[in-house]
């Protein structure tokens, strides 16, 4: 068990309109790789949804430092996306930005088609896009909110994967972003937690389905992480102490989560499929 930091996380009072901008956060999330790359992903073609900021951005930069070529899908956060592209390309690799609302199937197909047009294939697919709205009363979750949450957080994973698979070969891998809420639930994020639970079952089932094709499927289930989703979803009181209820008494930084994705992507870990990694600050969830 990690030793807890005795000081609780205290963030300055702040709140942003959805979907939030990383550059306006205080402090700005840490996305730089914490280690020097050694070419472990050189030439590998990677598609990441929700790649403009937060965990997606940290993963993109870490993979770029290892030599990967990146295609990054994003909703409408163009400023963050352009900055991420520049930071990724600083590692000497190509980075393609694809603006698309992947809660619609037609856009999922377009994201994959644009990636294939530029890179000719996909070696690593990272389904990472997600959104949530806090609703303390279950009866306040509207049908519209429920459908939007599931279309973005779950359906897009099915659709992106469906269109990507014909372009993936043996040795490829898929990594899905779940959450600690899939295991312990969340009283104010019932629909979001439900989507994250669905992603775990999707990961395990797809892994079994694709094992004979030599394509591995795993997931990462982070705990509280300091990203634009947080400052655009919660009130100032919750943002101020966000992550302080974790055993480490703080929220994680995106660059502390990204190495879990790299571990799952490496060919050296070819015996892992259908599994979930838990970078969550020390919470034991037995999942």
From TrEMBL:
<dbReference type="InterPro" id="IPR002347">
    <property type="entry name" value="SDR_fam"/>
</dbReference>
<comment type="similarity">
    <text>Belongs to the short-chain dehydrogenases/reductases (SDR) family.</text>
</comment>
<protein>
    <submittedName>
        <fullName>SDR family oxidoreductase</fullName>
    </submittedName>
</protein>
<keyword id="KW-0560">Oxidoreductase</keyword>
<dbReference type="InterPro" id="IPR036291">
    <property type="entry name" value="NAD(P)-bd_dom_sf"/>
</dbReference>
<feature type="region of interest" description="Disordered">
    <location>
        <begin position="1"/>
        <end position="41"/>
    </location>
</feature>
<dbReference type="Pfam" id="PF13561">
    <property type="entry name" value="adh_short_C2"/>
</dbReference>
<dbReference type="InterPro" id="IPR020904">
    <property type="entry name" value="Sc_DH/Rdtase_CS"/>
</dbReference>
<feature type="compositionally biased region" description="Basic residues">
    <location>
        <begin position="1"/>
        <end position="10"/>
    </location>
</feature>
């Amino acid at each position: 068990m990690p030793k807890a930091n005795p000081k609780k996380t205290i963030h300055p009072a702040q709140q942003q309109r959805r979907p939030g901008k990383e550059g306006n956060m205080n402090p700005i999330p840490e996305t730089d790789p914490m280690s020097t790359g050694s070419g472990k992903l050189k030439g590998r073609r990677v598609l990441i949804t929700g790649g403009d900021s937060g965990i997606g951005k940290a993963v993109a930069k870490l993979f770029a430092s290892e030599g990967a070529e990146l295609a990054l899908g994003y909703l409408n956060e163009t400023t963050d996306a352009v900055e991420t592209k520049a930071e990724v390309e600083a590692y000497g690799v190509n980075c393609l930005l694809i603006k698309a609302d992947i809660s619609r199937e037609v856009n999922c197909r377009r994201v994959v088609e644009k990636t294939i047009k530029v890179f000719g294939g996909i070696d690593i697919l990272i389904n990472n896009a997600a959104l949530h709205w806090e609703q303390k009363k279950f009866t306040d979750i509207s049908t519209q909110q429920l459908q939007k949450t599931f279309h973005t957080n779950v359906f897009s994973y099915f659709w992106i994967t469906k269109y990507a698979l014909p372009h993936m070969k043996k040795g490829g891998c898929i990594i899905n972003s779940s959450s600690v809420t899939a295991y312990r639930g969340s009283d104010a994020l019932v629909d979001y937690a439900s989507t994250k639970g669905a992603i775990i079952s999707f990961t395990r089932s797809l892994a079994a389905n694709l094992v004979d094709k030599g394509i591995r499927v795993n997931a990462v289930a982070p705990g509280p992480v300091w990203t634009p989703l947080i400052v655009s979803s919660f009130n100032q009181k919750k943002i101020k102490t966000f992550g302080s209820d974790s055993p480490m008494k703080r929220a994680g930084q995106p660059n502390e989560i990204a190495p879990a994705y790299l571990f799952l992507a490496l060919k050296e870990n070819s015996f892992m499929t259908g599994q979930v990694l838990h970078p969550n600050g020390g919470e034991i969830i037995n999942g």
